[in-house]
């Protein structure tokens, strides 16, 4: 995937939009939201944003890609349950593996969970290890081509999934097909690492600064909706395709959905027409370019502060995923298995908060929005401890916590996009994705053990204290 140039020469390094495309925002920080809108001539709000054909194509690509990412996990669990876990879960290799991590294998569901863990690990490792490196290449290569190629390759990779059902050798007590799915998941995650920073860096090229906050709000709401819809309807859709196509003589209908979604994402993004800045080839190493991305964080306080806020927020949300089980256990009508209801409530709140920020966010100071979001999250964490055992107050607080998360995350993401130099965005977003994936992983490992030792209430208060301290360190009373 090489950089494509044109006949204008290296001097034409600035982005020159087509007549119907908005100008790219400058990288310099803005003083206030009013000046930010006036400087670009952009109008805030979702209506003005959706009037852009180029944004709609990028957004459509995001919708299909996000849905495919969620359907992928559902498909892997579906295949494990359909083809590799029988009614008799006794498998010596699995029993030994479960004993090593102190898990009982008494039911079929527990076996499925253990085998699905291998898929989750394969999906997580590239996200932790390759995000920053992939961000460097997202700066070196044309971003639109990176996104198209990533989705097209993922579609092609999933076309090979039916081969994993063929009979073959057994490795470590499990069919070769299962290990092939683990390897496929690893490769799919590697391709995703290239897509993510390219997509984040492309958004400010297509959207004027006055509409960037609304664009990030739409993206956040879409991401949350795709998570809810993808996990909720994934299994029924796969079963419907499997049975429906089987009735017309086409086996393997469950394998159609993912290549279709990734393919539609590639087609939508390929339709975007704009010229990216011409890249002058550089002889420095990948590690030196990563150092340049770190230098951006050192030199630009606004970018550094926004990234710290995002990493903290995702750490808190990851911890909440674990704490939701304990919270649900205190509610008689839910029980520990009903924790998904609490997470869904926070998801609904996040989506509503994203829509509110899209419509009204430009009226407020970015620092004030971020601090307000952290304050709302901190208060909700404290009150969740007081509302233990009460369903309605807990649901309301989870939804309000989601609103606070949106009020924090969207302005922070917008600040990073605006205040990062255009030629450094891929590196910075790659680094951001790396840190966020670590922030999502560590609390999942630690939160359960900490709750077991100290109890739910002290952990909620501790997390609230961290959020409140971070909000005060931002010094919201200062003028931007």
Any overview of this molecule?
With 480 residues, the protein is mainly alpha-helical. It has 2 domains: 52-208 and 229-281, Growth Hormone, Chain: A (Up-down Bundle), CATH 1.20.1250; 300-475, MFS general substrate transporter like domains (Growth Hormone, Chain: A), CATH 1.20.1250.20. It is 73% helix and 1% strand. It has helices at 33-40, 46-50, 53-84, 92-100, 108-129, 131-140, 143-158, 176-206, 209-247, 257-270, 286-299, 301-329, 339-360, 366-386, 391-419, 425-454, 456-473, and strands at 170-171, 174-175. It has a two-stranded antiparallel ribbon with strand order 1-2. Strand 1 (170-171) and strand 2 (174-175) form a beta hairpin. Helix 3 (53-84) crosses helix 5 (108-129), helix 6 (131-140) crosses helix 8 (176-206) and helix 11 (286-299) packs across helix 12. It is globular. Mean pLDDT is 79; it is low at 1-42.
């Amino acid at each position: 995937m090489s950089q494509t140039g044109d006949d204008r020469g290296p001097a034409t390094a600035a982005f020159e939009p087509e007549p119907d495309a908005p100008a790219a925002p400058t990288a310099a920080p803005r003083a206030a939201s009013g000046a930010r809108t006036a400087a670009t001539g952009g109008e805030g709000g979702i209506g003005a944003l959706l009037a852009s054909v180029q944004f709609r194509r990028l957004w459509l690509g995001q919708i299909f890609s996000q849905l495919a990412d969620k359907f992928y996990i559902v498909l892997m669990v579906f295949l494990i349950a359909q083809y590799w876990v029988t009614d008799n879960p006794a498998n010596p290799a699995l029993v030994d593996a479960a004993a090593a991590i102190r898990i009982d294998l008494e039911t079929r569901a527990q076996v499925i969970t253990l085998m699905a863990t291998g898929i989750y690990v394969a999906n997580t490792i590239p996200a932790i290890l390759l995000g920053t490196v992939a961000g460097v290449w997202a700066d070196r290569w044309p971003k639109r081509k990176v996104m198209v190629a990533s989705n097209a390759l993922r579609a092609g990779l999933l076309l090979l999934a039916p081969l994993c059902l063929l009979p073959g050798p057994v490795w470590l007590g499990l069919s070769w097909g299962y290990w092939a799915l683990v390897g496929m998941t690893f490769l799919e995650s590697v391709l995703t690492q290239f897509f993510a920073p390219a997509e984040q860096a492309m958004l400010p090229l297509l959207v004027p600064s006055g509409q960037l906050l609304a664009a990030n709000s739409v993206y956040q709401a879409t991401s949350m909706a795709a998570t809810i819809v993808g996990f909720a309807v994934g299994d029924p859709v796969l079963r419907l395709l499997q049975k429906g196509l089987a009735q017309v003589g086409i086996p393997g209908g469950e394998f159609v959905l993912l290549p279709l979604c990734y393919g539609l994402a590639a087609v939508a993004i390929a339709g975007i027409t704009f010229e990216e800045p011409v890249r002058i080839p550089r002889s420095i190493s990948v590690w030196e370019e990563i150092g340049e991305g770190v230098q951006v964080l050192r030199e630009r306080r606004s970018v550094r502060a926004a990234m710290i806020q995002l990493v903290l927020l995702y750490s808190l949300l990851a911890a909440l995923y674990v704490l939701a089980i304990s919270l649900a256990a205190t509610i008689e009508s839910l029980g520990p298995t009903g924790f998904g209801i609490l997470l869904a409530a926070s998801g609904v709140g996040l989506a509503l908060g994203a829509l509110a920020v899209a419509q009204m966010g430009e009226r407020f100071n970015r620092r004030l929005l971020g601090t307000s979001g952290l304050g709302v999250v901190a208060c909700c964490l404290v009150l969740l401890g007081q509302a233990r055992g009460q369903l309605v107050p807990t649901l309301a607080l989870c939804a309000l916590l989601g609103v606070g998360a949106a009020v924090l995350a969207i302005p922070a993401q917008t600040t990073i996009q605006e205040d990062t130099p255009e030629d450094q965005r891929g590196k910075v977003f790659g680094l951001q994705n790396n840190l966020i994936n670590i922030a999502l992983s560590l609390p999942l490992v630690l939160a359960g053990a900490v709750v077991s030792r100290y109890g739910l209430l002290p952990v909620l208060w501790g997390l609230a204290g961290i959020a409140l301290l971070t909000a005060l360190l931002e010094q919201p009373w200062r003028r931007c």
